[in-house]
Amino acid sequence: MDNPFKKILHQEELPKMLKEKVMNDISFITLAIDMADLLAIKYPETVENLLRLKKDKN
Amino acid sequence: MEIIKTKDSILFAELYDRYGSVVYNKCLGFAKSKVEAEDLTHDIFIKLYMKLHTFKGSSKFSTWLYSFTYNFCVNYIQRNSYKTREKVQEVEAEDDSTDEITENDIFQIKTKKLKKVFSIIDPKDKMILLLKYQDELSIKELQTVLEISESAVKMRLKRAKEKVMKIYKKL
Hey, which bits of chain A come out as E strands? Predict the structure, then answer.
């Protein structure tokens, strides 16, 4: 017996420009996450370590 | 899958090439227009990028992705047509038959009528029926992707089939 559920599946072609839009947004998200990581975690950690080094020297 | 650990955008582009078309065509089944389906596909892939780490490998990736796609579409529809859904549920609650509906009964429905039924039915019921009869997931796979027990899967399928038949008979 034919399965009508298989027949209702669309067979349209995926618009090509959509990939560019998705990948651009992915790049932006990755950049935003990396920047947040740099400014909120890595940069303060570096400053803290520098200050600790100075304190140890004194 | 390497991409889950690395979140490499080149690997993600490959993932898009492989599944983009399937996701888009599944979205067309829920959206009112091609533009809406494009927006849904875009948003699904963005969310997928952020949520890739939640794939634990307990099912095939494609199975997990289909469920992810349907869930996104169902949430989107429920957000946008809350009032319509309420009305449909009220109609469905009126008739409470207990006859078991077989696969054969469901497969008797013509494609055109099934499309019409699916435009009316609760999207959650549509989702479980598509996973079962379009993507051919087993009860065990449905258990895994829906994170519910075997009896709950069977009950949801039974209720969804009953709702389809009720709406179909009223068409």
Answer: none
The pLDDT of residue B10 is: 86
Give the model confidence (pLDDT) of B119-141 as tens digits: 999 999 999 999 999 999 999 99
Cα–Cα distance, B65 to B44 (Å, whole number) = 10
Q: How far is B107 from chain A (nearest CA, A)?
A: 6
Query: Distance (Å, rounded) from C-alpha B116 to C-alpha B170?
Result: 11
| Single-letter residue type at B107 | F
* pLDDT score of B36 more than 80: yes
Find chain B residues with C-beta within 8 A of A15's C-beta.
24, 38
Closest chain A residue to the Cα of B45, Cα to Cα: A22
N-to-C CA span, chain B: 46
Joined tokens for residue B83: 């009032």
CB contact under 8 A, A14 and B21: yes
Sorting pLDDT into bands at 50, 70 and 90, what band is B23?
very high
Length of chain A: 58
